[in-house]
Amino acid sequence: MSEPNFFERRGVVAAFGILALLGGIYFIQPAISGNVTGNAIVSDTLFNIVPIIGILLLICSIILLAYAAVKKN
Question: Could you tell me the pTM of the whole model?
Fold first, then answer.
């Protein structure tokens, strides 16, 4: 069996999952505390896109961490 690619290794996948989890928590904070993480994409529109990015990052981190947990190599 061949050696897995760098991005297919279990440790790398878990590291990306943890980074996505931390990023998701960071970007979901504006919905909780009202702080703004960036003025470039925040405006007085009907909805704020920053918490949506945070939710997507949290979903991706759950998928990545679950994949790293069941991966054999």
Answer: 0.73
Return the residue matching tokens 């928590």.
25
Lowest mean pLDDT segment, chosen from 25-29, 32-36, 46-50, 69-73: 32-36
Contact criterion met (CB below 8 Å) for 64 and 20: yes
The dihedral over CA atoms of 48, 51, 52, 57, expressed in degrees to the nearest 10, equals 160
CA dihedral over 47, 48, 53, 59, signed as positive or negative: negative
The C-alpha atoms of residue 21 and residue 61 are separated, in whole angstroms, by 5
How many degrees, rounded to 5, is the angle at CA 35 between CA 31 and CA 36?
95
Give the amino acid at 72: K
